[in-house]
Amino acid sequence: MPINQNLPKDLTSTLGDVVTCIEHWRNNKSEYSGHGIPDDIWLKIFELEKSGSYTAIQLKRMLTLNSQQYNTKKFQLIKPNASTRKHPKPTANKAADTPHEIPLEAQFCEAVVAPVPALTSVQTKKAASTKAAIKQLKSTQQKPEDYLSTSTIVVEYIRPDGHRLKIHTTAQSIHHVMLSFSSAAGAPQ
Q1: Is the separation of the CB atoms in 130 and 124 below 8 Å?
Q2: What is the mean pLDDT of residues 76-80?
Q3: N or C: the chain end with fewer CB closer than 10 Å?
Q4: For residues 157 and 179, is the Cβ–Cβ distance under 8 A?
């Protein structure tokens, strides 16, 4: 929001003046009426921004001011003309930005969602069979004899480097599995 002519004409402040005023207020809050930074100090801060010497971000950092409080006070004290309002520019970092412009009204758009194609009967059957197989494997009511072949064996092998292999395999392929696992770590065969 551009700062317009609502500032008093007699204010001519420097950063040093504003720093002195804020330090005095922070050290002597009990002497001031109300709570928060007095409006005359805020007006001096906004005058510095209007002069172009400092940006709002620089002023907030140098004077250790809260962004929300800064923006609220700026809106309260510096009333924009309806003709000076513009739509805000989109930015990536909302926390570091200050509102330079205020939209006149809310803008709405319609979200269009593309339809998702239906599954074919073949895909549906494959999904159902996969789901049934997974359900059977996860079931705790099934006995291993029901879903494991009687020709398989359970092998647990620990290499010297601490890696563990635990696998269900057949007696015909155990030698190949053990060689592959042992040679993967450079372990002796």
Answers
A1: no
A2: 77
A3: C
A4: no
